[in-house]
Amino acid sequence: MSEDATVRELWDRTYRALLPWTRVPTADLNARCAEAVTAALAVLWNGCDDVLLDVPATDEQIHAVVAAQQAYGLGWRDAVLGDVTAAAGAARLGRGPGGLWAPAADRNGGRGRSWRPTLRHDLEFFARHPWAPELEHLRAVRRAVEASSADPRTALAVLFRTAWEQQAAERRGWDDAAWWQYLGVADLTSWAVVALGLPGADPARAGTAVEEAAEAVSPPCWTWTGTGLPDGFLDEAFAALAL
Fold first, then answer.
1. End-to-end CA distance of the chain
2. What CA–CA distance (Å, rounded) separates 71 from 105?
3. For the chain, which ranges sit under pLDDT 70?
4. How far is CA 138 from CA 18, 24, 38, 97, 158, in A?
5. Which pLDDT belongs to residue 115?
6. Using CA atoms, how far apart are residues 232 and 243, in angstroms rounded to an integer?
7. 157: closest CA among 167, 147, 168?
8. Which of 67, 131, 132, 122 shows the shortest CA–CA distance to 100?
9. So what's the pLDDT on residue 1?
10. CB 87 within 8 A of CB 3
11. Alpha helices, DSSP H only, in the chain?
């Protein structure tokens, strides 16, 4: 099997494994992670009651929270993906979508620092499900595909327009990042290629091509000043995917 074929196979397997989890609300994912992290901390600290939770945390406590959250995330990933991560590592295929294939040693989100009023508040921030953002991308793709009867052009139009609508009201006038970066155009496209069964050895390349199309059609310094997606973006995205 060629390396490119292996890449696509593992993307497809990753998508199928994660798809059922897109029907679990993000709030529930975060709650399950926080419950597991709190249980781990109770073992480490010989309890984790309200007296401890309702006072300011130390940096050392936050380091423990982050370590438990990362361990939970790795365990969840390996349980859901099975041998996908090992296969990707053996073939040296890189970190994969959202870093899902990265070795455990490479999964380091930092140690964190206490900055909220109480440990309870810090837990709400630091003990979120680490793969929830990637599952949000898949959830958006699934909904767009379902809403379009899996027609590729319609699905992509729904996907990008919905992503714009979800971001534009809040981001209007922002200029710290390009609009396609806030929308996650590359990631959404990559998962859409998989969900729609579009041809392509590596879905990440398709995502890069559509992101480049977004940049090409956007006027200089154009961020969130328009009322919708830039003119010509969808046509160029379709062309990049040979649709």
1. 27
2. 11
3. 1-5, 107-112, 169, 171-174, 223-226
4. 8, 12, 28, 11, 14
5. 75
6. 15
7. 147
8. 131
9. 42
10. no
11. 3-18, 26-45, 50-53, 59-81, 84-90, 119-126, 132-147, 152-171, 179-183, 185-196, 203-217, 233-240
